[in-house]
Amino acid sequence: MTARPSAKSPGTLSMPLNRPTSVAASAQVLDYQSVGKQLNRALAVETAVNVIYRPLPFAVMMATPADLEDFAYGFSLTEGIIGAASDITQVEIRAEERGLLLDIALRPEKMQAHMSRKRALSGRTGCGLCGIEDFDSLPGAKTSVKPDFHLPPAAIKQALTSFARHQTLNDSTRAVHGAAFFDLNGELIVAREDVGRHNALDKLIGALLRRGQNPVDGFIAITSRCSFEMVEKAAAFGARALVAISAPTSLALERAEAHDMVLVAVARDDSALIFHGSASLEPKTMARAQ
Q1: Does 156 score more than 90 pLDDT?
Q2: What is the pLDDT of residue 62?
Q3: Is the domain covering 46-137 a CATH 3.10.20.10 domain?
Q4: DSSP assignment of 42-65
Q5: CA 51 to chain centre
Q6: pLDDT score, position 286
Q7: Where are the alpha helices (DSSP H) in the chain?
Q8: Average pLDDT in the 256-267 region?
Q9: DSSP H or E run through 78
Q10: Which of 61, 127, 221, 235 is flagged as catalytic?
Q11: Could you tell me the residue ranges of all domains in the chain?
Q12: Nearest to 183 by CA among 208, 148, 147
């Protein structure tokens, strides 16, 4: 059944999904001397949103599952697909097994124009999924059995203390992200920078591949937020641990658990939060704080 456009928002079919935008996750405090008490931390929900212009798939974007009708209009305008809100006749939001489907119907002449132009998403520094048209193309590193891995907490502290010194471009611009690989003593092996957080990590992984670096001989640290694709990229390289300056999203934590990857986030010089893999950070001689 075709819904009649609302007067308030032309062409929009309102379908509230009542999905949470944040979830509670358990983490353990790491002060680099001991693994401390558990606490709950709110994580932003990250969901794959498959954007289609009925009936053609267009892109998969990672988004917070809120205000998606607004996103449909804004995304369509900034991609040059529409010129006004009235160019959209209907928006449907449906839950799928792997995310949400954002089904957008255009006026016939706009749809014809859209179909006649070759799709070319502009390069982005944020989405990380440029060029992906549907859920079947979502990236996902294969989970495999890994050898035992131990990351000394002192190595994380050492890495975080020195990380900024290796970000020469950011030191002069204050506008780029960094990704670095440190050995298990916290000494820098390679660092790379880019305006895009995904690009910085891809550059780092490329440099490590070229030098034949064994991924289990160290860990990756990033200055950006930890979304799911950052975990997937690290897993694709074979990294056993990812340390992030900012908090992970819900999906990043889910993927880290699936890969059994150590995930340390909200990492500072004096403390951090362990979201997964505390056993790899706690040597037998370290007494757990009560």
Answers
A1: yes
A2: 82
A3: yes
A4: EEE--EEEEEEETTEEEEEEEE-S
A5: 18
A6: 43
A7: 68-78, 108-116, 153-163, 168-173, 197-210, 228-237, 250-259
A8: 96
A9: helix 68-78
A10: 127
A11: 46-137, 153-281
A12: 208
Cα(182)–Cα(147) distance, integer angstroms: 19
More confident residue, 71 or 121: 71
Higher per-residue pLDDT: 27 or 15:
27
Quote the DSSP letter at residue 226: B
Q: Each residue of 17-45: pLDDT tens digit? A: 677 889 999 999 998 888 878 889 888 88
Q: Is 60 exceeded by the pLDDT of residue 284?
A: no
Burial of 122 (0-12, 13-18, 19+ CB in 10 A): exposed
Looking at residue 73, its pLDDT comes to 92
Q: Indicate if 226 belongs to the active site.
A: no
Q: Tokens 């990043």, residue?
A: 252
Tell whether the model's pLDDT for residue 53 goes beyond 80: yes
Q: How far apart are CA 264 and CA 280, in angstroms?
A: 11
CA angle 48, 52, 53 (to 5 degrees): 155
Report how far residue 57's alpha carbon sits from residue 64's, in angstroms, rounded to the nearest whole number. Answer: 20
**Is 153-281 in the same CATH topology as 46-137?**
no
CATH superfamily of this structure's domain 153-281: Cytidine Deaminase, domain 2 (3.40.140.10)
Amino acid at 247: A
Q: Please, what sign has the CA dihedral across residues 169, 174, 178, 182?
A: positive
**Spatial separation of the C-alpha atoms in residues 208 and 128, rounded to whole Å:** 20
Helix (H, G, I), strand (E, B) or coil at 106: strand
Q: What is the dihedral of CA 266, 268, 271, 273, to 10 degrees?
A: 10
Query: What is the pTM for the complete model shown?
Result: 0.76
